[in-house]
From TrEMBL:
Record-linked Pfam families: CbtB
Protein name, UniProt field: Cobalt transporter
Keywords: Membrane, Transmembrane, Transmembrane helix
Residue spans crossing the bilayer: 18-36
InterPro entries recorded: CbtB_put (IPR012667)
Domain of life: Bacteria
Species this protein is from: Streptomyces griseofuscus
Length: 68
């Protein structure tokens, strides 16, 4: 006789917790998109400070965002 096969049990996630994770993930994704794709001198949250721009400069070009 062979041993009975173990059936996988599904992960049950309450809707409220799923919404929390989806909204949190979307906010983090938008923040990353802003800092890599949008943040430049004229639109910068930090004014004319270009440290963020220079930090993500190569990633910006790698992802296809023009900056100069």
């Amino acid at each position: 006789m062979s041993a009975p096969a173990a059936l996988p049990t599904p992960v049950v996630l309450p809707v409220t917790k799923a919404v929390f994770w989806l909204v949190g993930t979307a906010l983090i994704a938008l923040a990353i998109y802003y800092f890599i794709g949008v943040d430049q001198g004229a639109y910068s949250v930090f004014g004319k400070d270009m440290h963020v721009h220079e930090f993500v400069h190569d990633a910006r070009h790698f992802l296809g965002f023009p900056c100069h």
